[in-house]
Amino acid sequence: MNDRNLVRGLFLMAISLAFGLQALRYPIGQFSRAGAGLFPLMVSSLLFLIGLITVVRSRFDERVHLTFNLKNIALVLGSLCRYAVDSQHLNMIAGIVSMVFCSAFAGTSYSVVRNLKVSAGLIAVAFAFQKLLGLNLPLY
Fold first, then answer.
1. CB under 8 Å to 114, separation ≥6 — which residues?
2. Do residues 110 and 104 touch, judged by C-beta distance below 8 A?
3. 24-61, pLDDT tens digit by residue?
């Protein structure tokens, strides 16, 4: 089982099942009057479908060897921890920017312009969540 695409699909399916089964513990409601579990159940169902498609495609695509780069895993996990600390002690915008710039070191190429664009997109999504959905996010 050294096929990266197969493992990727199975991992997506496992994550979606973990969250989807937890969403069933909350009231689902109806589309006209959604309960607390409807949105996570819908998102996890879509993630499960993507994982299933990935698993099926892996049977027809050429196998790609699965490798682990511990440095990249540590960089991404560290940037997520930095995001949490910066969001708690400074604000969420600083956390987003620091997370993007730190996790970009795990990629194959580093681009300040690309990092600024990704940061701006994530900040725009956070503002949309705050203003349109009324979430209490500490953006500034």
1. 104
2. yes
3. 888 888 878 878 888 889 999 999 999 999 999 999 88
